[in-house]
Amino acid sequence: MNPTNRWVVLAHLIPWDEICNLYLKFVPVSQTGRPPLNPRIVLGSLVIKHMCNLDDRETVDQISENIYMQYFLGYPSFTNETPFDSSLFVEFRKRLGMENLNAINEKIIALKTKIETKQTGGNKPTESTNNENSDDSKPIDPTEIEHKGRVIFDTTACPQDIAYPTDLNLLNDAREKLEELIDIVYKPTLHTSKPRTYREVARKTYLHTAQKKRPGLKVIRKAIRLQFNFVRRDIKSIHTLLDAYEGLPFPLKPKEQKYFL
Fold first, then answer.
1. For residue 205, which of 182, 222, 217 has the smallest C-alpha distance?
2. Cut 0.70: pTM above it
3. 85, 119, 125, 156: least surrounded by Cβ within 10 Å?
């Protein structure tokens, strides 16, 4: 093998023990079930994915075809088998978290920049650099550069906690907001009694249908009708409470103003 190949060089530069310990901290080794993957294979695959700007499937295919990539992952010899299924990339990102992935990405970019600098001749100035330093010969200190935020380099990752906006969920959210409004508008010194919201009953009714794996059409329609009745009752109660404020000054706290803008 060529000792100057980028994957051979990078395999000796990356602190594998430090990164693997970080991985094992969030993905502990289980004593039962299927043997876990080698942390170097998992993290090395993420390195290859980000450095080559590949998607999940292409990354697995490239590893099974490239002997240098397999050497980078710590394989003892070349094999045509894929290291794991491409769908496991989603599980890796989920377990590591964005903060740890960003930390690994920063180390990868720093190492990649170091290798590219050596390959291009080190301190060879570019045209843009000469223009920027024409007014001031003093080099720019990287520590003085202010960071404006974080960049997520893994563009294939997307949030998985996006709820589908079904009618039942929307009605339940509207009911909860209306119950908060009732708590805010109601004043014991101004109203005789607080209207009933039946929030516990409404919550149990909603969960009884929402937690079912495959609720039938009749069950969904019944649950929507019940939630709609709770929403209609809460709206009527809010109008009744607001009628007591007619002719009176209505100062609101900053926390309460957002509900009436």
1. 222
2. no
3. 125
- CA distances to 64, 92, 206, 248, 261 from 251, rounded to whole Å, are 69, 51, 35, 9, 13
Write out pLDDT tens, residues 81-95: 888 888 888 877 777
- How many angstroms separate the CA atoms of 227 and 232, rounded? 9
Residues in the chain: 261
Give the Cα separation of 84 and 37 in Å (integer). 8
Query: Between the CA atoms of 61, 66, 69 and 75, what dihedral angle is there, to the nearest 10 degrees?
Result: 100
Neighbours of 73 (CB within 10 A): 20
* Tens-digit pLDDT profile for residues 93-114: 777 777 777 776 676 667 667 7
**pLDDT, tens only, 179-211:** 999 999 998 888 888 999 899 999 999 999 988
- Give the N- to C-terminal CA distance of the chain in Å, as an integer: 69
